[in-house]
Structures are given as C-alpha cells and as structure tokens.
Design goal:
By secondary structure, this protein is an alpha+beta fold. 34% of the residues lie in helices and 19% in strands. The chain has seven helices and seven strands; from the N terminus they run αβαββββααβααβα. The chain has helices at residues 15-25, 60-68, 117-122, 132-139, 150-156, 168-184, 191-202, and strands at 30-31, 69-76, 79-89, 94-99, 109-113, 145-149, 189-190. It has a three-stranded antiparallel sheet with strand order 2-3-4. A hairpin with a 4-residue loop joins strand 3 (79-89) and strand 4 (94-99). The longest helix is centred in the C-terminal third of the chain and has 17 residues, at 168-184.
Length: 203
C-alpha cells in the first residue's frame, strides 16, 4: 500500500491516488444504511478528548490550527491561546479570518474530523468498548483532522459522504482521506456511502 499517495491535503488528486483509494475502498466491509449500534454514541463515554501534541504545549486541535492556518497566539499561564488566524477553508475553497471571541460562524475556525466520530462509531468503533486508547487515537488522528470554518463544520456535522460533500474542487481529496482513515482503523462503509465515494472518484 502506497499510503503516502493519498495522505495529502492538496486539492489536486492524481490518477494513482484515485486508483489506490478505489482499491482500499473495495477492501472495506459494507453495512446497511440503516444499521444502528445497540449502544448510542457518546464521545465522552469513549474517551474522545484532545491530547497534547508531542510535548508542544498544544493540544491536537490547536496544533491543527497551526498546521492549516497562519495563526497568531500568545501564552497564558504557560499555555498558548489563539487570537487570530487566516485560514484557507478547503471545504469551501475560500479564505476566512478567525478571531478569538468571534460570534459569526462564517468567520470562526474549527477543527473537523473528516470521518466524523459518530460515523466511525456506527461503522465499527462501537466494538471498541474496552479500547479507550484506540478511540483516543482516532480522535487525535492527524490525517482525519482539518481546520475549516465553523459554519461549514456545523453543516457537515456527523454526516457521511452520501449525505454531505465539500465543494467539487475538494471532493476527490476529501473522499481519498475518508477512505484511508476507514482503512487504517478497520471501519466499514454504508452502501450509500460507498456508492457516493465511487461516483466521486470516477467522475
């Protein structure tokens, strides 16, 4: 598996990226769209908290803001506090400026799980009842995290690819990332989800 080909946040997707994504997708288990785990999803119950990123003083969320945006921050009690960031929102393909305390969701930056945690739960993570470490790893998985505007993050929410997609220019990259995360964590896809993924990759 040449995973380095599809672990990228660049908008452009090569033919090799697409071929590998399709190959990985075909290895994933497919479940019914209406499958519902017996126990309702709860992020708190499954250790879905941010951890510190490599002794930087930043939790994973804040490090993603640094990775994806031109961020400014100050230190308070030894911890970084963000106050302004310029971000190119790849879901919308446009610039936003984030400022601490901003109430307009179109001007706020948040960190999105590309494969939402609730979708991951439905697609296999519900089996991790005694695997707090694995759940926390998924929550902080860098390949599954991207900084976007709060408005589009809330619009996407916990929807899968059959229910929500970014603007067309980023759709193929979005799908390749989702497939890789699902392959990495041995998660399934729904029938509708797989159909959408294949349609986007082959378009």
């Amino acid at each position: 598996m040449k995973s380095d080909l599809i672990i990228s946040f660049k908008t452009e997707v090569s033919k090799e990226d697409i071929n590998e994504a399709v190959s990985l997708l075909n290895e994933l288990e497919v479940i019914d769209d209406d499958f519902v785990p017996e126990v309702k999803f709860s992020r708190d119950a499954f250790c879905g908290d941010w951890t510190e990123y490599k002794d930087t003083g930043l939790n994973t969320r804040d490090w993603i803001l640094l990775r994806d945006a031109e961020s400014n921050y100050s230190y308070t009690n030894g911890k970084p506090k963000f106050y302004k960031a310029r971000l190119f929102d790849k879901y919308l393909q446009k610039d936003i400026v984030y400022t601490t305390g901003e109430t307009d969701e179109s001007k706020k930056a948040e960190v999105d799980h590309i494969v939402s945690l609730s979708n991951a739960y439905k697609c296999g993570a519900w089996k991790w009842k005694e695997r707090c470490d694995k759940w926390r790893k998924l929550t902080n998985e860098l390949v599954n995290l991207i900084a976007v505007s709060a408005a589009v993050n809330n619009e996407k929410s916990d929807k899968d690819a059959s229910e929500w997609l970014p603007v067309s220019a980023f759709q193929k990259r979005f799908i390749t990332l989702q497939i890789f995360v699902k392959y990495l964590y041995e998660l399934s896809v729904t029938k509708s989800e797989k159909e959408t993924m294949l349609r986007v990759l082959k378009s």
